[in-house]
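Pasting as-is:
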Amino acid sequence: MEKKSTHILNASSNLLGFSLVIITSLKITKMSHSTHLDEFAGVACLFFAFSCFFSFLAIRSTHEKRGNKFETIADYLFLTALFCIVSAVIIVTMKII
């Protein structure tokens, strides 16, 4: 099975930055109190950060079994964070329409 850790690390770090931009823009525009968007983005930030951490551990691990376990954890955290971002986009879309 091909290692996905480097791809997870790259994608989750990029999307972590995207989530932080969402939170920052909501705080600047003072819209964070009127939607749940910042909560979804905040949870996504945490999951993306932990996904980065576990994918980094998977890359640096010398034991293959432990590396595979870290990669699986990072994969599920990434998927959960992606769900949070999609939920945030749906919230924005519903507010615009």
